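thought: fold this chain, then report.
action: predict
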Amino acid sequence: MANTEGPEPPRTRRNSNKNILTRIRHGQSSGRAISRATEISEALLQERDQQAQWHGIPVLLQRLYDSSHLNSDLSQIHSIIKEVSPFLSMEAMSFVTEDRRTVQKSTCPNTYTFDLFGGIDLLVEILMRPTLTTQMNVPKMSDDLVKDCLSVLYNCCICMEGVTKSLASRDDFVMFLFTLMSNKKTFLQTATLIEDILGVRKEMIQLEDIPNLPSLVQSFNQQQLANFCRILSVTISEPDMGNDDKHTLLAKNAQQRANPCPSHSEVNQVALLNIPGFIERLCKLATRKVSEASGPSSLLLELQDWYTWLDNALVLDALMQMATEDAEQSSTESSDESSLATSPLRHRLPQSMKIVHEIMYKVEVLYVLCVLLIGRQRNQVHKMLAEFKLIPGLNNLFDKLIWRKQTSSHVLHGQNQNCDCSPEISFKIQFLRLLQSFSDHHENKYLLLNAQELNELSAISLKASIPEVEAFVNTDRNLICDGKKGLLTRLLSVMKKEPAESSFRFWQARAVESFLRGATSYADQVFLLKRGLLEHILFSIIDSGCKSRDVLQSYFDLLGELMKFNIDAFKRFNKYVNTEEKFQMFMTQINSSLVDSNMLVRCIILSLDRFESQIEDVSVVEVLSECSLLSYMARVENRQAFLFRLVNIINVQILTQENVSCLNTSLVVLMLARRRDKLAFCLNALREKEYAEKYPGCLLNNLHNLLRFWQRHYLNKDKDSTCLENSSCISFTYWKETVSVLLDSDPTSLCAIASYIDEAYMDLGRDFLEV
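observation:
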């Protein structure tokens, strides 16, 4: 700042420019002195402009301010905005196409200057001014003026994250933007800006606060509704907490205790479900067909370079809208797909672009449906998705759109890793996630089959003399898949053709596994065994050379559900794994990461226990004696070795949704030992292991704390307890009783952990459950 108490020293022009910027920055941060260009004389700004390379932006902003009063000439305002806009759009386009992620003021100098001299605040004032006055007969802003204002703000957000955060902090402006979405001509520009803003907000908005939300959504055509789903995805998903420590079950439980009320995202989900016709329209969007037209498929390859900046349907829509306006057809916009397909614009667009455009829509729609499927209102959503025939519709799209071709190349990424890939890959993965959510522990899973396949399940049950499961009997055949194959069978076909390291294999296996999860169904297992699924899984684990831990984990889990309690599956296993070399390779894969394979280990142990109680059956005895896998697990020392490792690789502080299964598998081993009066033997073996490894008390203290956590975590979670009971065929009462017996404080109890820890090493009093 200049010295106000005496004469200023001589200054160079460079110092003068710096002084102006310094004074503005100080004014904006302190709220005192200069805070915008309008407080500096135009003569001074013009004098400094050329050397500072401001391109006249401060002067334009000053003129814009002078022209932007309530009853000003809006055409003059529009003219100035058009003059400044190219400087900003040029930088935004350069930023996006060059994929820059770290922006300094030198990277986008025009945007920096525009923001520094108050351009952002001025545009917000111009946009909102008509809503902030009670004066009548205020000049109405044209749609073109509104669009240009929004485009300038969006371009600034692209180049400077600080601008986005500043806009996001203004609740009044965010709500105002939603009101602009009711105008079809400003919808796209508004939607792109809202999406950017909501992505950086610290607090999630409440959808019920949006003025007239139901009528707003109902006013959208199908194209707008699909784009609105991009915005909704931010409002109905739990925010990413970033820090891995916050993803632990300990932290989540503490957060739930501190905030027992429904989260903002859960409240927003309810708000959406209360909008009449919302789910039905999403189902229509998800299942509508792409209008087919002639066009060389090679054009899709030409579009791949566009993906660096055509990263969402909104941008592509903007291009289509510009082309429409050039053809003077914007007034004839129709939400009907057939009308859109026959327009001159659609004929001029490459067919591959139409397909990618439709795929982009469906990615957003499927994501919203998927989130709603796993929310608290799951049963309500399930009923509506079945009623509106989402699954049959997706089945009809499978060959022509969803899996119309094998993608030539794509990166492998894990289930929790952000996907930054092509629209087709994103679409396939989102489709698979939806199938997983739809089938998981829900009776509607049989809607994935057609009539012939349902009849096949009935025949399997009849031949095995077992009753059909209740969910199967209750399936409404008016809502199932039609055609030659159901959706599950189509999925199996493409799954077996996927390359070993394909990113799709993880999600394919998860989707098929979800069909088997819940109460074990022999007919479901045989249905999949007859289609060669077990042999495919074993080939992938043993012979394919697959190194991906995510894929292997999903295949281990699927194999466990496929083989559990099924004697035929173990016969098939033994037939495929017919050499010692193959068996050792299989066990090496299991032992390489027990966190990934423990669900399969649990399945083998549970199945062995069941089979050993059926020794009157000759075929069971035959398999018990011949199957290398069952023989291996029948040896007590091998089961104990798994128990040692399972207890040793987890502790309360690192438990997550991914590895808590290790705790439950450990407990299964202990429960089965208790059934056979071998619990004391197991605990003593753990004690001996501790002393042999020279860390007495470590394993048993850890097990004790894990079980204390188990009590607190599961006894208040109905869903989790049901899953445990269904997956193990052990009553949850027995789970609870076994934990109580193990945690008994009576030092004379031979089944209490405390009895096996020497007093010198006992560390049971510390509260590991607090965070």
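thought: worth noting. DSSP finds 41 helices and no strands in the chain.
final: tokens above.
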